Amino acid sequence: MARELLILYGESNGTDTTGTYELTSDIIYGTVNHIRIPKGMKAKIWIKKISGDPGTVYIQMTHDITASEPWASPVTLEKITLSAAGQELEDTKRPRIVRGITGNEAIRVTWEQSATGYKTSIELCVELTDEEVE
């Protein structure tokens, strides 16, 4: 059984009203804007914390990251809205699970805010595992 735990951090840029989080981690060099799910593995996505200015965060997936426009029609797995500045959300519910059926599946986290100058930050945990999902 293989298992890897990624704690990812991201922050909206404050200059745009929409965008994709550039995610960092202590085990990733630089930043990434998506995580590809290896064939035969599952990604368990746990939201740890979302905070900042009002806005909406989306966890999305694509079935084929190798397509010419892989994010043209993403599947939204989760939509989380912060209705007030300074609000903080910690989610301890069940994880969102994405299966790596072909190895071309990928996930990303995007944001949408009503005005420039707003910032939200996110901390999430992605567990990559080959064990059976309960």
Detailed description of the structure:
Helices cover 0% and strands 54% of the residues. The protein is mainly β and 134 residues long. Strands 1, 6, 9, 10 and 12 form a five-stranded antiparallel β-sheet that branches. Strands 2, 5, 7, 8 and 11 form a five-stranded antiparallel β-sheet that branches. Strands 3-4 form a two-stranded antiparallel sheet. The protein is globular and about 40 Å long.
Structure summarized in a few sentences:
The protein is an all-beta fold and 134 residues long.
Tags for this entry?
134 residues, mainly beta, 5-stranded antiparallel sheet, 0% helix
Q: Strand-residue fraction?
A: over 45%
Q: Spell out the helices and strands N to C.
A: EEEEEEEEEEEE
Unreliable sequence segments: none
- Alpha-beta content class: mainly beta
Number of H- or I-type helical stretches: 0
Integer average pLDDT: 90
**Based on CA inertia axes, which overall geometry fits?**
globular
Characterize the main sheet: 5 strands, antiparallel
Cα distance spanning the termini:
15 Å
Radius of gyration: 15 Å
Considering DSSP H and I runs of 4 or more, what fraction of the residues is helical? under 10%
The number of strands is 12
